Amino acid sequence: MHGIMYILRQVGARVKETGAVYWRCFYSVTLTIAGAVGLASVPQGLECLRLVSQPGWNFPLFLVSVAAWSLAAWYSARLTLGRVFDGHSLLDHAHSPYVRSLRTWLPRCLGVVPSALLTLTFYRLREPVLALACAGAGATIGVFVVKRRAWFATRFQMRQNGSEESMRFAALQRRTVITVAGAIALSFALLFALWWRPVEVAAVITAPVLLCFAFASWILFGDLVLTYFFKQAGLPSMAAAPLLLFLVFSLTNDNHAVALIAGDSSPMIRRDIDRHLDAWLDARVASGDLRRGAPFPLYLAAAEGGGIRAAYWTGIVLAKLQDDSGNRFARHLFAMSGVSGGSLAVSSFAALVADGQDGALARAPCARANPARPYQQCIRSLLRRDFLSPTLGYLLYPDMLQRFLPYPIASADRARAMEMALDDGWRQATGSERFAQRFDHLWQGAGAYQVPSLLLNATLVAGGNRVIASDLVIDGRFPDAYDAFDPLLDLRRMSLATAIHNSARFSYVSPAGTVYACRRGAVLAPCAPGLERAPWGRLIDGGYFENSGMESLRDLLFALRPGLARWAAAGYRIVPSVIMISNSPGALAPSGKQDPGGVRLDMTFLSELLAPPMGLFYTRAARATFAVTAERRDMAVTVPDDGGRFLWFGVTTRNDTPLGWALADVTFNGMDQLLAPEPGAQLARLPFDAVSASLGAPAQKR
Question: Which residues are within 8 A (CB) of 198 and not within 5 positions of it... i.e. 6 or more apart?
Answer without folding.
Answer: 390, 393, 394, 416, 417, 420, 421
